[in-house]
Amino acid sequence: MVGMDSGLDTRRIVHPTERIVTGRLIRLLDGYTREVRIGQPVLVAVLAAAAFARLPALLLRSLFSFGGGTRRRWKELKQGPEYLVTPVRLRNAAGQLCEVELHGHLPQSALHPADQVQLTLRPQRDPELPPRIERIVNLTTGQLLTPRTATLWSHLGPPLLLQAFLGTLLVAGIAACSALT
Question: Mean pLDDT across the chain, nearest whole number?
Fold first, then answer.
């Protein structure tokens, strides 16, 4: 066929199985968002413990008519945070075209096509998905890069986690006092 471009690489894109892959970055594809799954038992435990810490505050608020702060609703907390997923293509040392996923954000100037990189990978729960990048060593620039994503704990936030901790201490204190008497 005359109209076909013989320069196209028709070899299969592979998902590397090695923990560490070294290769040349080909391109960063367009990113999309994926949601962190929130387990209901963990969320219920954190909210229940936080409720115990709020009891004294609720009593004070009802006695002195203090205005309450805004709290996030169950639906908002149950829906996990979204994070950016960027498919990354590279050519490994064996010449294979590989695809991996970058979760989270990196500075725009951190990676460029043709950079020589060493990737530390972790398989994902879904075996159909390419492995996830844990760490990048850009051998061209000498930068060590670690992408960060949202987690369950960052989604719940320090105030709610502090309330849950204080609520757990309060319940433990009450249980210890009742056991002594």
Answer: 81
Summarised one tens digit per residue, pLDDT across range 34-43 is: 887 777 787 7
Residues 117-148: b if buried by 16+ CB within 10 A, e if exposed: bebbbeeeeeeebbbbbeebbbeeeebebebe
pLDDT digits (tens, 9 = 90+) for 72-102: 676 777 777 788 899 999 999 999 999 999 9
pLDDT of 150 higher than 80: no
pLDDT at 6: 40
Residue with tokens 């100037």: 109
Q: Show Cβ contacts of residue 137 under 8 Å, excluding neighbours closer than 6 positions.
A: 117, 118, 119, 143, 144, 145
Please, is 7 exposed, middle or buried when counting C-beta atoms within 10 Å of its C-beta (0-12, 13-18, 19+)?
exposed
**What stretch of H or E contains 32?**
strand 32-35
d(CA 46, CA 159): 12
Q: Any idea what DSSP says for residue 11?
A: S
CB-count exposure of residue 170 (10 Å: 0-12, 13-18, 19+): middle
Give the predicted TM-score (pTM) of the model: 0.63
